[in-house]
Amino acid sequence: LIQFSIQGDINNGKIGEALQGVHAIAEMSVQGDQGESAIGSLVAASNFAAVRESTSIIDKINDPVRIGALLETVQGMDEFDPFGIRKSLSSERDIMVEWLRSPNVDVSLIGMDETFNDEDISQYAKAMTTVSEIFQIEDKQEALTAMKNWDLALESGEMGVLAAELSPVSMLLVTAFDSAELVATFKQLLQD
What we know:
Blueprint: H1 2-11, H2 15-31, H3 38-52, H4 64-75, H5 85-100, H6 118-135, H7 140-155, H8 161-166, H9 170-191
Helix pairs in contact: 1-2, 2-3, 2-4, 3-5, 3-9, 4-9, 5-6, 6-7, 7-9
């Protein structure tokens, strides 16, 4: 809704109000940057992506105070993991392992009709630990290559049945890099 409001303000020449909407989106994205769940981090990244469509108004603003306030909000974001996508993987692993070890786990909720044992859970935890480590690699090509190798191991069954069912994370790595690049580009626009 805020994005529609921003567009309406732009169309009506209310650039100051549109910038307030952009600032609100940025603040919501920062608040969503807790890294406790992948879905929360992705929602924050998606919210911030809406800012990209409003960058044309930045050049129209002659109010350094408003631009400065927005820049301050954006500068508060972690440059490498602005929405907590990378951080969320460890939390997700821990949550899933705890759930899988609970006595009343219903495997049908994850699309499985077979049971699993402690070794399967350990394989899953190890696989997700490796993914968490890959997500900490700062070089994009190196990280994507490591992820590709991890995917091959997953497909070959090396990671176990649970990892194969619960670990569709390859595109999440691309999103993590794209999100960091988007934030860096927006910061640069505000600084110029």
